[in-house]
């Protein structure tokens, strides 16, 4: 009942819808940014949006979200085009171009913000909230703007899915097919700028970069297919938004934006640790299993060579001798080989210590590992 009462609150509904819209568009478009090795792009575009926010406020004369987001989109797009121009016409790498664009436009935004603060209009406009986000200030009319931007971006992704996919993975081949690679590259960059614009009021300029990158990075751990990765990134983004909105609503005094980023970061950590095939835990277990298997193969081939040297397929190798050869306790390895039916334990009087002989299956596997039968016992 308490949860139903909470969800019936008009302000909380706005925050939840806005956070999920942000997670949706960030997850989808952030996937392309991560795969194109442009993770810094979200950081650049979010900081480059600050002068646009200020210009939108100055032009509208008030905190009009449409004007502010339009200004943010314009300066974000200019920063993206400036970065593309730098990397295409000079020897600068992408990361250097992004860094230059970020510094230049953010510095310009700080100058504008300082000017507005000096005139006393910043408090009325609430511009400082765009630095760190202020989800509670979202209105239903703001959601229509965010929803429209999200719908346009998703429609463009669906319409040019094949082209964007090809440009992302093999731009050289795309150029040989006659595709306008530069135009598609710019289009993708501008669409990421759209995602940044959607999240400015929710998480702010400072944290928006993480929202672009985190869901995509988490999704990348779970799949090698672009369509699955994009779908998972969208889900992870929306779950992060929902979690941040609900926690901030139930725990008064906690900001929604940072909670959304913390939720997304938690999903990234879980994915990095436990994603099948790529997670650190599974990779560690696989390396351990490979190490154990390698020890088993080495001991098995050693027993085979001893039998071949003595020209006796049933030659009983003393365990202490095998231990001395490897300089460590080999009983666990021998037990695993015994469980697999590759060796058998025998008595070899008058010695009382354990001895091991190869079974027919063990001889066959050892020969397969060695790749020849020249030394068949």
UniProtKB/TrEMBL annotation:
InterPro entries: ABC_BtuC-like, ABC_TroCD. Its main location: membrane. It is a multi-pass membrane protein. SUPFAM superfamilies: ABC transporter involved in vitamin B12 uptake, BtuC. One of its GO terms (cellular component) is ATP-binding cassette (ABC) transporter complex. The keyword Transport applies. It is found in: Cell membrane. GO terms for biological process: cellular response to iron ion; response to zinc ion; transmembrane transport. Pfam families: ABC-3. Keywords: Cell membrane, Membrane, Transmembrane, Transmembrane helix, Transport. Signal peptide: none annotated. The chain crosses the membrane at residues 12-35, 40-59, 65-86, 98-123, 143-161, 173-196, 202-219, 226-247, 259-285. Belongs to the ABC-3 integral membrane protein family. This is Zinc ABC transporter permease. It comes from Pelagibacterium lentulum. The lineage of its organism: Bacteria, Pseudomonadati, Pseudomonadota, Alphaproteobacteria, Hyphomicrobiales.
